Amino acid sequence: MASSPQMPLAPSGRALAKSTAIAMLVAGVVLVCFVLPAEYGIDPLGIGGALGLTGMSGAASAKAADPAQASIRGPVFSQPGGYRPGYRMDTREFKLGPYEYIEFKYELEPGASMLYNWKASAPVIFNLHTDPAGKPADASESFEKGEAAGKQGAYVAPYAGLHGWYWENPGGGEIIVRLSAIGFFRSAREFHHDGTKRDYDLAKARLPE
Description:
Elements: H1 13-40, H2 47-50, E1 88-96, E2 101-108, E3 113-132, E4 142-156, E5 161-168, E6 175-183, E7 187-192, E8 197-201
Antiparallel strand pairs: 1-6, 2-5, 2-7, 3-4, 3-5, 3-6, 7-8
């Protein structure tokens, strides 16, 4: 009698975390070695120059401003500075009750970069913004905002401070937001809808082996 086919085993949480880390690391290598030199003339490792990629962007023509995004500053790419916090990976999960919000931001030095990927179980109101170090609250800048069920990308801090997201549940059911990030951050801060906050020391958060 023929035996029934066996179902493949689901990957373990550790395997999934390792796969995510490898994928984000590869994306980071592509970003630093190819995208930044070719598109922005930024070549921190000198590989772009060796491959003839620097300067390919030329004098890009200015795009017309979108009135709906007039108050949002565009993405910033800058030469890495003198920061030495180390390259780290961090993953988080947030539960948002009806109409609740949360903010989560990483502490970054000028020029420090990170790759991020966040997904929500349903669309949320979001705002990728900053809290500049030593500046009043109204000095905050927004880089992207709207309503979505997920976003991913690369970010380079234009100045020292807290850099991260505001997520708000616009409906009546619970929403779960999952965040994964790899970058040169050393700490993070979480702000809750009830006015409380929590600080995280990420000095020991490293890439999984």
